[in-house]
Amino acid sequence: MTRRLQDFRFDKSEYERPNQKWVCGWAAEGRPCHVGPDPGGRCRASYECKPRRTGRRWHCTRPAQSGGKCADGPLPDGTCGRPIPKCQPVRSLRARRALVTLSMALFTIGLAVLVFGGPHLRALRNAIISPGAISAQHGAIQDCAACHTRAREVTTASANGLGGTARCQLCHLPAGENALTPHGLSEDQRRSITARMEQVASSGRVPIALSLAALGPTVPQTSDGEIACATCHREHRDRDKRLSEMDNRRCQACHVVKFASFADGHPELTDYPALPGVRYQFDHSAHEREFFPDEDAQFSCLDCHSSSLSGRGVLAGSFESMCTDCHGDQIRRDGLTVFQLPGVDYEVLLDKGISIGEWPGDAGIDLDTEFSPVMRLLLAADSTVADDLEQLADVDLFFLEGEDVELLQAAGRVVWAIKGLFYDLVRNGRAELSARLERTLGSHLTSRELAALVDQRPVDVARAPQPEWLSVLQAVQEQWLPNLLVEMPRHRANRPVRFREHDEYQELQPVGDSTWLVDSDFSVRYRPGSHADVFLRRLLEVTGRAAETDGVAAELFAALQASGAPGQCAKCHRIDVASADDQRNVWTEGRIDQQARTLTNFDHAPHLVRECQSCHQYNAESGFETIPKSTCTVCHVQNMATDSCLNCHSYHIEGFVMSHDR
């Protein structure tokens, strides 16, 4: 019996169109429209029927399979009252099959042409195979094999995930032995940091991705704890992408403290900024609240400080630009007594048969004048005299009444030692002074130190024919001890020298703005020329270096740091015995080392849009306070000034250098 697959009578079934490319969108709900989509796949539905007019009336013509005549009927103007909603036509199964078949055929043909197309399609093949453009830093590399080794060339390091590192080091050479370890730190350093950070609890939520990452495999490392460069430096992202750019999650993948962001969970800042060992004294609070108002001056941080070249720290201006208005005269106000004739109770000495030869009668008439520590240092070059000076430490040479003979004899030897010092310096000048300094200090002086101490000049300044102190000393010797050049040879030959009180002298005046001054108390003083006076600087350094082993040097070192000492170096600089051995520690420690590398960096330059005091709060007792994290998070959040780890932290400490720089 023959049965039709479809009843083609219009009032019995819908006509299916298997040969058409598009199917009505309502077909999936079992109610496709009669007309169906057009060949372009656009819906052509209008109304459920086309009313027929009989006389003055319109009649519904909807077929029976669609529900028959509707109850409402056509509108008065003959329009069907039941419009068909527009649908989204879809491709028929036959059309989809044809499209897939055609696409696969074209793909197969194109792939065959690309693979077997010959050398003229090599550039196209490379462009399709390449994972992306390399960074601008490596833009000169044209050959993939320069970085990517073939499988048969894989080394043991490659098997450990480090094959690319060996290739990187063809150009980038480690600057230190730990350059390839995490952060360039040794294993002991990493363990110490880890132990400390394990005590720090994150105060915020930990993202799920970071929590899951902690359960996954760790970063591959060699037996030496080194990790591959490509672990952090990812290529083929874009030409404008920086190789050092990493997201925060990649940084935190290895860290024991994990957090959502800088504002949400990052540990609080402690002891930041950690100021280096500052060896100068400056009371910001007193200057701002007392000294500047007294001078009717405005206190501004930027008047004294500027951002360093690296941005890591701030640089203080020079003494001349900041301090000289108030403190310049203080440096030159007093002088350091270098040469001196003390008062001597020669009548008591003469009663005991101790002659000191010629001596100024008015020497020591100013009873407030103390014996110069510089004279003690120069006299102590002779060990016998050093013992005598120690014996006379608590004795005033101007009052010797009642002292025993042994002490009086020591006093006589010290007086002749003073005259011998003048005699030797006048005759031998520089050589005698340098020899005495080296004997007392117990060390060889460098050319820089000799230039400063003997000639009062920097080492790069030409030496004068005769130092100024020698000219002054010769002049005062002729005034105070005119017979010295005759007396000393007789005394040293153990021949008697008769005492003579000398009182024929006149006051000597310095010439111009001299640094060497002659005082009426029979002393020659050195007046500092300016801030950072080369003579006082080196004298502090060499006496501080010898202070631990030499009591005379320690006495002078202490005198130079006393309140109101000449030059007033200790008014601003903290100087101790340990630091005096290192010139950098004495005068420049505390300055930011521009070459030093740390894990935390800060660039002041972009932050100078705000007042310094908005971050740096000063306490009169403890100095600058630690900057709280909340000060930073005012700006450093994701949608403002960014909160990237790399804003403040660097990865490499030791770093790398280019092979052509070695």
Brief account:
By secondary structure, the chain is mainly alpha-helical.
**What is the count of β-strands?**
15
Mean pLDDT: 81
Q: How are the strands ordered across the major sheet?
A: 8-12-11
Low-confidence parts: 151-162
Q: In whole angstroms, how far apart are the ends? A: 98 Å
Number of helices: 24
| Sheet with most strands | 3 strands, antiparallel
How many separate structural domains?
4
Shape: elongated
Radius of gyration: 48 Å
Helix content: 25-40%
SS class: mainly alpha
| Portion in strands | 5-15%
Topology readout:
Blueprint: E1 22-23, E2 52-54, E3 57-59, E4 90-91, H1 93-116, H2 122-129, H3 156-159, H4 163-168, E5 172-174, H5 187-197, H6 208-215, H7 248-252, H8 284-294, H9 301-304, E6 305-307, E7 314-316, H10 319-322, H11 324-333, E8 336-340, H12 346-351, E9 358-360, H13 373-379, H14 383-391, H15 405-428, H16 430-441, H17 447-455, H18 468-480, H19 484-492, E10 500-502, E11 516-519, E12 523-526, H20 534-546, H21 551-561, H22 577-580, H23 583-587, E13 618-619, E14 623-624, H24 629-633, E15 656-658
